[in-house]
UniProtKB/TrEMBL annotation:
Catalytic site: 249
Pfam families listed in its UniProt record: Aldedh
Biased composition (Polar residues): 15-24
Domain Aldehyde dehydrogenase residues, every copy: 17-471
Methyltransferase listed as a keyword: no
InterPro entries: Ald_DH/histidinol_DH, Ald_DH_C, Ald_DH_CS_CYS, Ald_DH_CS_GLU, Ald_DH_N, Aldehyde_DH_dom, LUC3-like
SUPFAM superfamilies with a match to the protein in the record: ALDH-like
Record keywords: Oxidoreductase
Protein name, per record: Aldehyde dehydrogenase family protein
Signal peptide limits: none
Disordered: region residues: 1-24
Keyword Oxidoreductase: yes
Similarity remark: Belongs to the aldehyde dehydrogenase family.
Amino acid sequence: MQTFLNTVDGRPQPAASTFDSHNPASGEVLGQVARSTAAQVDAAVAAARAAQPAWAALSADSRQAALLRAIDALSQQAEALATWVTREQGKPLGGVGPGQVPGARFELWGCEAWARTSTLLDLPDEVVFEDASRRDVLQRRPLGVIGAIAPWNWPLLIAIWQIIPALRAGNTVVIKPSELTSICSLEMVRVLAQALPPGVLNSVSGDGAVGGWLVEHPDLDKILFTGSGATGARIAATAARTLTPTTLELGGNDAAIVLPDADPQAIAMDLFWGAFLNMGQTCACIKRLYVPEALHDAVVDALAALIRAMPMGDGMAPGTVMGPLQNRMQFDKVRALVEDAKAAGATIVCGGAPRPGAGWFYPLTLVTDIADGTRLVDEEQFGPVLPVIRYRSVDAAVASANRLDVGLGASVWSGDPAAARAVAERLQAGTVWINQHGTIHPMVPFGGSKGSGWGVEFGLEGLKSLTQPRVISLKK
């Protein structure tokens, strides 16, 4: 069985020990993954530190050209990488374009789109003040070495969000993938690193202890993390001791509010994918749906019809739309939240019980007759379960949406753009979408508020966050 190794200083790093990676659809062992030691984490950071001055010294054009060569290599391996994503993460292969299942091929398409957009951004010097006596120019300089920790839900796409802007800004990177999706991640890093100078992009793999060694390392200049709030809090505490800057995207419990004038049939498909993209295992999925009493049954009926029509199975099988949950921990959490809702008197419209047989399959589940204060409403389920909560007034719906200490995304659904905008202005979230949900874009800043983290990714604002501002002030 193949052992998948880390890339450090442009070369495969030998494995002192390994762990298994499993297919969540079957339990099959896919391969062995190198488990990094503390000394190997040190070596990866040292390689990044040694490579950084020369990488930063390249002109913007030269760095862009090198990154575009790496992205071309990624594009050439997209199908192989998508297959690894399906086998290891669980999402169907799917395709790209209208009518296609947004699965692993969609993830690789997103990787390339985000990478090319980020690579072609520029941060020219900016004259911020000038008069007869002085001229002040703001420059953006690289920070140095970036430590990145990527999650298992979109293992390659989120890693690209971390890697490419950091490299574009002149930094070097050490990335730790999730131990649950290491093979696809290490393979992508290998492909990219082969097209870059040695040491510019390095990887370390293993469990939380390896991530701890990375974020505690004194030679990091910034930490990027996407994951749970609990882990993010530990990273923030560690970073505070060394005054290391962080960007933290810590998930959320996104609320969607359907206004009384909405057309249930017209919005049903977008609501469906807003809630169930990637089996609900997306930070910015709809996790709570607030619907006025007059529209409640029509919205529920429209969603239930779509849910019942979506085939679930192994993502490698043709025609599969929904795959398994990625891991046992998430499966158990989803099951426990649904059982708690049942015990509280909620109605299970469809789904509501694990599918028998191999794999972490939990059916798409729609829950009604549920209210704020129930665990399924108040806790982020991060899975294929959507609670639908009735409301009597828009003010009450807004209050419910804002009551939790998270604020990654939210959405408002209405046929009246002005009315929707007025409600959107009142919602406490990093992004509020109108008549769409989770539709991120590589040029639009994305980040959370409250307990959903701090800092932004994407576009010029995300690129700036990976630089150190420096002012050159000239007396005339």
